[in-house]
Write a structure and sequence with these properties.
Number of helices: 1
Strand order of the largest sheet: 1-2-13-12-7-6-5
Number of strands: 13
Number of domains: 2
Strand content: 25-35%
Distance between the termini: 62 Å
CATH topology of the largest domain: Rieske Iron-sulfur Protein
CATH class of the largest domain: Mainly Beta
Structural class: alpha+beta
Shape: globular
Bound molecules: FE2/S2 (inorganic) cluster
Radius of gyration: 20 Å
Order of helices and strands: HEEEEEEEEEEEEE
Length: about 150
C-alpha cells in the first residue's frame, strides 16, 4: 500500500469511528441526574424532573415540552445510582443499578437496562429479560401524589 493511500485509509477509519461513537451515544438515551431530597430513608423527587424542554433546530418551530422516560438519582450515601422510570402517568419504578449477577453497574436507556459486564438485560420494572443474571434488580417501594414521587429506601 502506498503511503498516501495508507493515510487516506487511516483518516477514513478515524472518521468512521468518530461517527460510530456519536451514533452510539445518540442511541443510549439521555442520562439526566435529577434533584431530590433524602431524609429518614425516604427520597422525595418532584414529578417535574421528568419534564424537559426540547429546543427546535429551526426558528420557525417553537420549543416543546417532552417527558423523560427515566431519571437517575445519585447520592454519596447510595453505593449505586437509582433509576426511576415512569411506567404510566402515575406509576413509577425505582431500581437500584447494581447487577444481580456479579455486581456491575447496570446502564439504563429509554426501553430497558443492560449490564456492560456480561450482557444481562432488565425490564423497566427490574425483571430479567436476558441472562446470565437470574434475579431481578432490587426495587424500592414508590408512592406518588399530584406533585412528588416518594421512594422508600
Ligand atoms: S455482572 Fe451484570 S451480567 Fe454479569
Amino acid at each position: 500500500m502506498e503511503r498516501g493511500e495508507f493515510i487516506k485509509v487511516c483518516a477514513f477509519s478515524c472518521l468512521g469511528g468518530s461517527a460510530l461513537i456519536s451514533m452510539l451515544e445518540g442511541c443510549g438515551g439521555s442520562n439526566y441526574f435529577a434533584q431530590f431530597s433524602l431524609t429518614n430513608n425516604q427520597i422525595i423527587l418532584r414529578k417535574s424532573e421528568f419534564q424537559k424542554v426540547e429546543k427546535s433546530n429551526s426558528k420557525a418551530e417553537p420549543a416543546r415540552n417532552v417527558q423523560r422516560k427515566y431519571v437517575l438519582l445519585n447520592a454519596e450515601s447510595l453505593k449505586f445510582p437509582i433509576s426511576v422510570y415512569m411506567l404510566s402517568e402515575d406509576k413509577y419504578s425505582a431500581l437500584w443499578l447494581q447487577c444481580t449477577h456479579k455486581g456491575c453497574e447496570v446502564k439504563p436507556n429509554d426501553q430497558y437496562l443492560v449490564c456492560p459486564c456480561h450482557g444481562s438485560e432488565f425490564t423497566r420494572a427490574g425483571d430479567v429479560q436476558l441472562g446470565p443474571a437470574a434475579l431481578p434488580l432490587k426495587t424500592f417501594v414508590t408512592k406518588t401524589d399530584h406533585e412528588n414521587i416518594y421512594i422508600q429506601l
